[in-house]
Amino acid sequence: MISPAEFVSQVRRELQRVTWPSQKETMSMTAAVILMVICAMIYFFISDSVIYFTLRKILGI
After folding, report:
1. Separation CA 60–CA 44 (nearest Å)
2. pLDDT tens string 11-51
Protein backbone atom coordinates (compact mmCIF):
# COMPACT_ATOMS: atom_id res chain seq x y z
CA MET A 1 0.00 0.00 0.00
CA ILE A 2 1.29 3.43 -0.93
CA SER A 3 1.15 6.56 1.19
CA PRO A 4 -1.31 9.35 0.40
CA ALA A 5 1.58 11.69 -0.52
CA GLU A 6 2.95 9.16 -3.03
CA PHE A 7 -0.54 8.69 -4.48
CA VAL A 8 -0.98 12.44 -4.99
CA SER A 9 2.46 12.58 -6.59
CA GLN A 10 1.54 9.80 -9.02
CA VAL A 11 -1.75 11.49 -9.87
CA ARG A 12 0.03 14.76 -10.67
CA ARG A 13 2.49 12.94 -12.92
CA GLU A 14 -0.35 11.22 -14.78
CA LEU A 15 -2.21 14.51 -15.26
CA GLN A 16 0.89 16.00 -16.86
CA ARG A 17 0.76 13.26 -19.50
CA VAL A 18 -2.84 13.96 -20.43
CA THR A 19 -3.37 15.64 -23.79
CA TRP A 20 -6.27 18.00 -23.34
CA PRO A 21 -8.40 18.85 -26.40
CA SER A 22 -8.43 22.38 -27.76
CA GLN A 23 -11.54 24.53 -27.57
CA LYS A 24 -12.13 24.00 -31.30
CA GLU A 25 -11.94 20.19 -30.90
CA THR A 26 -14.26 20.30 -27.90
CA MET A 27 -16.83 22.40 -29.75
CA SER A 28 -16.76 20.20 -32.87
CA MET A 29 -17.11 16.99 -30.84
CA THR A 30 -19.97 18.54 -28.84
CA ALA A 31 -21.73 19.51 -32.07
CA ALA A 32 -21.23 15.98 -33.43
CA VAL A 33 -22.73 14.44 -30.28
CA ILE A 34 -25.71 16.80 -30.37
CA LEU A 35 -26.29 16.02 -34.06
CA MET A 36 -26.14 12.25 -33.42
CA VAL A 37 -28.58 12.58 -30.51
CA ILE A 38 -31.00 14.50 -32.72
CA CYS A 39 -30.66 11.86 -35.48
CA ALA A 40 -31.29 9.06 -32.97
CA MET A 41 -34.27 10.94 -31.56
CA ILE A 42 -35.82 11.32 -35.02
CA TYR A 43 -35.13 7.67 -35.89
CA PHE A 44 -36.73 6.34 -32.70
CA PHE A 45 -39.70 8.70 -33.05
CA ILE A 46 -40.38 7.47 -36.58
CA SER A 47 -39.84 3.81 -35.62
CA ASP A 48 -42.12 4.13 -32.62
CA SER A 49 -44.81 5.83 -34.69
CA VAL A 50 -44.69 3.13 -37.38
CA ILE A 51 -44.90 0.34 -34.79
CA TYR A 52 -47.72 2.13 -32.95
CA PHE A 53 -49.85 2.64 -36.06
CA THR A 54 -49.12 -0.88 -37.34
CA LEU A 55 -50.23 -2.46 -34.06
CA ARG A 56 -53.34 -0.27 -34.00
CA LYS A 57 -54.27 -1.52 -37.48
CA ILE A 58 -53.53 -5.16 -36.62
CA LEU A 59 -55.37 -5.13 -33.30
CA GLY A 60 -58.20 -2.94 -34.62
CA ILE A 61 -58.03 -0.45 -31.77
Report:
1. 23
2. 999 999 999 999 999 999 999 999 999 999 999 999 999 99
State the sign of the Cα–Cα–Cα–Cα dihedral 36, 42, 46, 47. Answer: positive
With beta carbons less than 8 A apart as the criterion, state whether 32 and 24 touch.
no
Instruction: Provide φ and ψ at 2, rounded to 5°.
Output: -100, 160
Distance CA 36, CA 30 (A): 10
Distance, CA of 2 to CA of 15 (rounded, Å): 18
The alpha carbon of 39 is separated from its chain's Cα centroid by a whole number of angstroms, namely: 13
